[in-house]
Amino acid sequence: MRGVDTELVKRAQHGDREAFGQLAADLASRFLPVARRILRDLDLAEDASQRALVAIWRDLPQLRDPARFDAWSYRLLVRACYAEGRRERTWSPNLRMLPADEPVASDGLDAVLHRDQLETAIRRLSVDHRTVLVLHHYADIPLDRVAQILEIPIGTVYSRLHHAMRAMRAAIDADARPARAEASS
Amino acid sequence: MTTEHDPRTRTVLSWLREDAYENPERMLLRALDEVDATPQRRSWPAWRSNRMNTYAKLIVAAAAVLVVAFAGFQLLPRSGGVGVEPTTEPSPSPSLLARGSFTAHGVAAELDATGSGADVAGTMALSQSGTNNAATVDLECARTTAEGLIEIGGLLTESAWDPDAQDWNDGFPTGQRVAIIFEPGSPVKAVWWITSANDGVASCAALFESMDGSGDEIVPGSPGLAPIQGTVEFGP
């Protein structure tokens, strides 16, 4: 996680809306992609990110140590994602997919062919598992910090990540099997 | 293999990390509009520095001397006669201050307090659902503010509380002082006040001093005062 300007945090804690605006602009650009990858939907991600930003403003005076701002703000984002996930428990059928024309590293496997399988697989994961996967592998947050953000033991983080990655890899295997079967027949 | 050398893992990660530009501007503007209409929660007693100045400390010290002198005077024999037996009068049972079982801001409390002012007895057992967090407060003092808030404070004598259990303080560390501030009514509202090690709060009176000197006064209607779950019975 990148560092945050603690002076800005302190000013915002004392009600400086301009300082908060600067913080919020930075947070918004980080929160939205993370929320979108957890919730798999842009509208839900926008709602979650907005909810998190407002909660951060409201509760900022309660944050004792401004150096903890980054982890604390991610915690509020994750809570907002959970809330949005509960609100929209049945995922909308017309979810916007990530663009299919982006270059992807394939390394022998044609990743484009796996997109649908991966999307299906990640939707089958619980929000708990998706959150660990996205925070660690997308937002590049070390696992011990993920544990702090989620307020769960590090062992649980490892377990969720292991489960999530296994399910995602299995989706690729499942995708590859029919092709192999066709090739061998 | 489950490392990034595994082509399947690499495929998953590159898919997860692939660029998809999400423009946050619309969301940010909506959020800032909402922020404009949202007050900050300023009265949460997460931490307070002891801002008692030297002058105030002198006043407290002088008051303490007067209290000791007055108490000593009260203990002197009244009629000067050697061998006069002191009369023993039955001491009245301490009056109820507050009793109940409630949860405030996610912290559950079993409260049993009697007495008033600097003569409060009883305990407050704290815990947090779903955790091993637990602490005991030996109650010491209480006061009712001019606005009608009931404040009961004491010393944390036992604690097994995770310092990171809340965002708003360092848990309930042994040796620190805690006050629960009630706003009577329906519903009863409450908020916690916890000192930290650098506050230097050495007595229950100093706890109230630190609250008064914080510059962040809690009054009825303060956002930090949230409805409790459970019940509390207050004395007369």
Give an overview of the whole structure.
The complex is a heterodimer of chains A (185) and B (236). Chain A has 185 residues and is an all-alpha fold. Chain A is 72% helix and 0% strand. Chain A contains eight helices and no strands. With 236 residues, chain B is of the alpha+beta class. Chain B has four helices and nine strands, in the order αααβββββββαββ. Classes of the chains: A mainly alpha (185), B alpha+beta (236). At the A-B interface, helix 2, helix 3, helix 5, helix 6 and helix 8 of A face helix 1 and helix 2 of B.
Layout of helices and strands:
The complex is a heterodimer of chains A (185) and B (236).
Chain A: H1 6-13, H2 17-39, H3 42-59, H4 69-87, H5 111-124, H6 127-138, H7 143-150, H8 154-184
Chain B: H1 7-17, H2 25-36, H3 54-75, E1 96-104, E2 107-116, E3 119-127, E4 134-144, E5 150-160, E6 177-183, E7 189-194, H4 204-212, E8 226-227, E9 229-234
Antiparallel strand pairs in B: 1-2, 1-9, 2-3, 3-4, 4-5, 5-6, 6-7, 7-8
Low-pLDDT stretches of chain B: 43-60, 79-84
What is the subunit arrangement here? heterodimer
N-C termini distance of chain B: 71 Å
SSE succession of chain B:
HHHEEEEEEEHEE
- Radius of gyration of chain A using CA atoms only: 19 Å
Helix amount of chain A: over 70%
Strand count, sense and barrel status of the largest sheet of chain A are:
none
How does the overall form of chain A come out from the CA principal axes? elongated
Q: Please report which band the strand proportion of chain B falls in: under 5%, 5-15%, 15-25%, 25-35%, 35-45% or over 45%.
A: 25-35%
What is the number of beta strands of chain A? 0
From the alpha carbons, calculate the radius of gyration of chain B and give it in angstroms.
Answer: 25 Å
Largest sheet of chain B: 9 strands, antiparallel
Task: Briefly characterize the structure.
The complex is a heterodimer of chains A (about 180) and B (about 240). Chain A is mainly α and about 180 residues long.
